[in-house]
UniProtKB/TrEMBL annotation:
Keywords: Magnesium, Metal-binding, Transferase. This is Polyprenyl synthetase. The keyword Cytoplasm does not apply. It comes from Streptomyces olivochromogenes. Residues 1-67 are annotated as: Disordered. InterPro entries: Isoprenoid_synthase_dom_sf (IPR008949), Polyprenyl_synt (IPR000092), Polyprenyl_synt_CS (IPR033749).
């Protein structure tokens, strides 16, 4: 069977210009609100009769409602379900930390203010744990059995965010000051280290037969993430003409694609998939991760700060070699020359608009959008290898589309 070709809808610019295409998910039967299944098909945590836990006929709810098995399930509902599934596990893990580390972690996740009072903040989109759970369900596994693995992946993701914010000197994340600006560099780094340890402990204490393989795979992924982050920071010290597209694509795969691939692979392991299917899921996640990073870089330059929660053009101000920038620099156009001159010296106040225009005129935005579509096509090919039935793969398809339809 053939998977539908995903449409890529690019984010609105700061003037609010809408995207130009709808994805196939937006043309599906919508008999209920976004993220809700068709009548009689519960979303995630319950049965058709509205009960939770097990179902009236004795079947475990996980077998009935695994996200990868829902007809026309959209990403919003899958992400909501994943967040609700992993947050209790995350809170239990974080509550086990010493007080000094716990308060930073709770602040970072948006669950507490800096003074320790409760907050109803934004803990993130839960894309990675959603991939774990949805991959498990798509291959016939019980996603409840993979919740600890999903939480472990989310802890690793947030460990990298805490460290990245320190290294990049980013001052805002999820519409609030970053942890290092509130608690200091050292404490934010140590909180990130503690989160990585919690992730490994969750898998070490998991009785599932796949937990050992999952722990090994996640540890290897962390090494790759560190390699990607090192490459990213090293590129900042090199001249505009010294970084190639191949290098920056390899960096993006290691820094972003690796963890999305690992999340999908862990889902396969917890479903009892064979090695070939697990590797195909990893490849699917990596390609989707590259599409994710391409769109993230586009949003970082042209996105609306009120939606992204980050200051406009922060990467350009920091002279980061993001994917659209390196593509623009390699274009051989007059705008590329102008951009190289701008990037050859530290940022000066008032040059942001000129830099944004130079990237766009040199083709950086168009290249990134076309590359995102290409990577999504490759991701769909890999997904079809692991899960040939498009209906069973529907949840993963919805999540893959989400990463190229988002605007924040």
């Amino acid at each position: 069977m053939t998977f539908p070709t995903p449409a890529v809808v690019f984010p609105p610019d700061q003037a609010g210009t809408p995207g130009t295409r709808r994805s196939p998910a937006e043309t599906l039967d919508r008999r209920g609100p976004i993220g809700k299944p068709k009548e009689g098909r519960p979303l995630g945590g319950g049965c058709a009769d509205g009960t939770g836990g097990g179902c009236a006929d004795g079947r475990p709810m996980d077998r009935q409602v695994a996200p990868g098995q829902l007809d026309g399930q959209e990403a919003a509902g899958i992400l909501e379900y994943a967040r609700a599934s992993v947050d209790p596990e995350l809170r239990r893990a974080i509550d086990s930390l010493p007080g000094s580390m716990r308060r930073i972690a709770l602040y970072h996740f948006g669950w507490e203010h800096a003074d320790g009072t409760p907050a109803a903040g934004n803990a993130g989109k839960a894309i990675r744990p959603a991939l774990v759970l949805t991959a498990t369900g798509a291959l016939g596994g019980q996603h409840a059995a993979a919740v600890q693995a999903a939480a472990a992946v989310e802890l690793i993701h947030n460990f990298t965010l805490l460290h990245d914010d320190v290294m990049d000197r980013d001052t805002t994340r999820r519409h609030r000051p970053t942890a290092w600006t509130v608690f200091g560099d050292a404490d934010a780094i140590l909180a990130g280290d503690a989160m990585q340890a919690l992730a490994q402990r969750l898998l070490a204490e998991d009785s599932h037969p796949a937990s050992q393989a999952a722990a090994a795979r996640l540890a290897s992924c962390v090494v790759e993430l560190c390699e990607g982050q090192h490459a990213d920071t090293a590129m900042e010290k090199r001249g505009p003409a010294e970084v190639t597209l191949d290098e920056v694509l390899a960096m993006a795969e290691a820094k972003t694609g690796a963890l999305l691939g690992c999340a999908c692979a862990l889902g396969g392991l917890y479903a009892g998939a064979d090695e070939e299917d697990v590797d195909a899921l990893d490849a699917f996640g990596r390609e989707a991760g590259l599409a994710f990073q391409l769109i993230d870089d586009v949003i970082g330059i042209w996105g609306d700060p009120s939606r992204t929660g980050k200051p406009a053009g922060a990467d350009l101000i920091a002279r980061k070699k993001s994917l659209p920038v390196v593509a623009a620099l390699a274009s051989g156009t007059p705008a590329a020359t102008e951009l190289a001159e701008l990037y050859g010296v530290p940022y000066e106040e008032g040059e942001l608009e000129r830099t944004v225009l130079a990237v766009e005129r040199a083709g950086g935005r168009d290249w990134a959008q076309l590359q995102a579509a290409d990577r999504m096509s490759r991701a769909m090919h890999e997904l079809s290898r692991a899960i040939p039935d498009p209906e069973a793969a529907g949840g993963l398809l919805a999540l893959a589309e989400f990463v190229t339809r988002r605007s924040n």
